Amino acid sequence: MTIAIDEALTVSFISRDDLLAAKIAAGRAQDLADVVALRESAKHEHEDQHESSHDISPAMDEIQRIRAQGRKEWLTMRQSQQTGNSRDDRSHDHDESAPKGSPGLDTDDELEP
Fold first, then answer.
1. What is the reported pTM?
2. Most exposed residue of 2, 36, 83, 89, measured as fewest CB within 10 angstroms of its CB?
3. How far apart are the C-alpha atoms of 104 and 20, rounded to whole Å?
4. Does pLDDT of 93 surpass 60?
């Protein structure tokens, strides 16, 4: 892998697996000691990642619980709004469907003595 540091400078790196293979192929005492150290550090990194995922798990569960509760509350609110709007629509429909001149609805009607 090659990384550009700036326009004039690039640096090449090999992967961890390629580094391990190169050190094993060299077979020198220091390289073999490095292989052991690299493998140990990989184990620790994996364990640390595994432990941190357990630390995060309760928080993620709580976030999902809160989202579900919020979603439920929103749906309940939305249903009550729609129910309220349906009632308002029906009451307007009833008033508009009443015939003009009906007693008590038309103020222009003259009252007879």
1. 0.38
2. 2
3. 95
4. no
CB atoms within 10 A of CB 23: 19
Q: What is the dihedral of CA 11, 14, 19, 25, to 10 degrees?
A: -100
Yes or no: say if 45 and 30 are a contact pair by the CB < 8 Å rule: no
The amino acid present at 80, given as its one-letter code, is: S
pLDDT 10s digits, 76-88: 888 888 887 766 6
Contacts of 50 (CB under 8 A, 6+ apart): none
The residue whose two tokens read 């993620």 is 60
Q: What is the pLDDT of residues 24-53, one digit of tens each?
A: 999 999 999 999 999 998 887 766 666 655
How far is Cα 35 from Cα 21, in angstroms, rounded to an integer? 9
DSSP alpha helix (H) spans, the chain: 16-26, 29-97
For residues 19 and 8, the answer to whether their CB atoms sit within 8 Å is no
Report residue 56: phi and psi, to 5°. -80, -30
Q: What is the DSSP letter of 63?
A: H
Residue whose pair of structure tokens reads 């364990």 in the numeric block: 47
Q: What is the three-class DSSP state of 10?
A: strand
